[in-house]
TrEMBL record:
Top-level taxon of the source organism: Eukaryota
Record-given protein name: Ketoreductase domain-containing protein
Keywords noted in UniProt: NADP, Oxidoreductase
Organism field: Pisolithus tinctorius Marx 270
InterPro entries the record matches: KR_dom, NAD(P)-bd_dom_sf, Sc_DH/Rdtase_CS, SDR_fam
Residue ranges occupied by any Ketoreductase domain in the UniProt entry: 18-192
Amino acid sequence: MDPTPDRPSPQLFSLTGKNVLITGATRGIGAACAIALAQAGAAICLVRRPPESAKQPNMDTVNTIHGLGGSVKVVECDLGDMEAVRGLFDRALDAMGGSIHVLVNCAGIQRRSPSVDFPEKDWDDVLDVNLKSVWLLSQAAGRHMVPLRRGKIINFCSLLTFQGGITVPAYASAKGALGQLTKALSNEWSQFNVQVNGICPGYVATDMNERLLEDPVRYKQISERIPAGRWGTPRDYAGPVVFLASDASQYVCGELLVVDGGWMGR
């Protein structure tokens, strides 16, 4: 592994000249991360669902990055379609001129139901999007990055990487496995100067948690347990993702960075 470059510390966080492929960036945490990475100088390749699988393609992130004067490309892919996922990295490579320096796996879906009634299709859907698509993209990224001896892979895990949750057995299983996948890839690829790490968000006020936000009992229970005194916002993940994508994290390998307002500490 290359040592941390001997540059002034602010320059270690610059992503100028880096190409980033990011999933889940049309809304929520992923959108905030894509914008932050662009602000740090990166060129962005954003994965968006095809129009036929979404009511209205969300262009807010693209428009914001363009407004910053940044570079952003869009590739379409349904991350629940494994055949499409298998070709996604190569299509992104073409869009980015043959080079990707950073992969950010931020896309995810949620299904809630008591475990005794949890539908098998919901299980398969969640495991495909939240785990298998991440594995396939990461494997493709490794095949690109390892021979070049450089690269960063950042997986968005969860508090449920460590905890079981309630009525979310598929999500907890996928995120638990994703934490182990992050460590497994790091064990193999760190020697080739490819750092693989995870970010584990706490409770964040996004549409994925809409049912919790609308449940006054659960909302109160969760809020009272967060030492910071508030739920997270997507912008709370801008700094962590830039850090892990940059040279400032050169010696950070296989880490699951918890960003949760102190939940796990309690």
